[in-house]
Amino acid sequence: MTTTLPSPPKYAIGPAPAALDPAIVETLRQCETTMLGHILYWGAMDPGIRANQGFGPRVAGRALTVQIPGPCSVMLHHAIGLAAPGDILVIDRLGDTRHACLGDGVAAAATRQGIVGAIIDGPCTDGEELTEMGFPVWCRGVSPMTTRMADLGGRAHVPVSVGGVAVMPGDAILADADGVYAMQPHDAAPISDIALTRGQIVAERRRTRGDDPLPLGRISGASRMVTAAMDQNPAD
User: How far apart are CA 36 and CA 8, in angstroms?
Assistant: First the structure.
């Protein structure tokens, strides 16, 4: 007698996340990822996730999370239809680094849906064409080998792992030429406000100092820390 083995659902879609407050998105757009990098030790995707062809205009928006396995992009094609204008695709490739799940055709469909960019933990394809059409993609390079309608399964609106960062459905994303940050919506407003305030303070200090002759260590406070530590532990 042949018994069919049980298996989990091939496709799954979680609840649609809440929309981001437009004010949060607008404030994030005023930040650079490097401004966040001065104040956060978490949320930054690893440097392997890079702007395709160096084309990294600053974008901010809500994460539309997708998981797709190996050579199959069925769920990605479906998930594009779940997007709201201003969303950013955040695609977990589940370890696959050979198959490109997004090229100019998928990007054109995403653009029509109002999607403003894509973050892929794997390669894209049609790298030059994506740049020419103005669709920014942060990914792990370019591959000529593409995914297909392999019907292997996939998930959307679920937690994903991209660039070493856990991204929840609806998280706030900020991406530019220097990298990608993901953060929970309730963190995005205070973090972006702090980043902008720090940026204004630094700009004012530089303006008032002009051609300051002081050594960098004096300006940053590093020399004070070194001196204090050496005074506590003088060499024999």
Answer: 40
Contacts of 83 by beta carbon, 8 Å cutoff, 6+ apart: 64, 89, 110, 113, 114, 115
Task: Tell me which amino acid residue 209 is.
Answer: R
DSSP E strands in 97-211: the ranges are: 117-120, 137-139, 154-156, 160-162, 165-167, 172-176, 179-183
pLDDT band at 220 (very low <50, low <70, confident <90, very high): confident
8 A C-beta contact, residue 65 and residue 140: no
- DSSP E strand stretches across 93-143: 117-120, 137-139
Half-sphere exposure of 221 (CA within 13 A, CB side): 0
Residues 127/212, Cβ–Cβ less than 8 Å: no
Q: Cα(first)–Cα(last) distance of the chain, in Å?
A: 84
What's the DSSP call for residue 123? -
Work out the number of other CB atoms within 10 angstroms of the CB of residue 133: 12
CB 173 within 8 A of CB 90: yes
* Residue from 77, 94, 92, 71 nearest 145 by CA: 71
**Per residue in 170-209, pLDDT tens?**
999 999 999 999 999 999 999 999 999 998 888 887 777 6
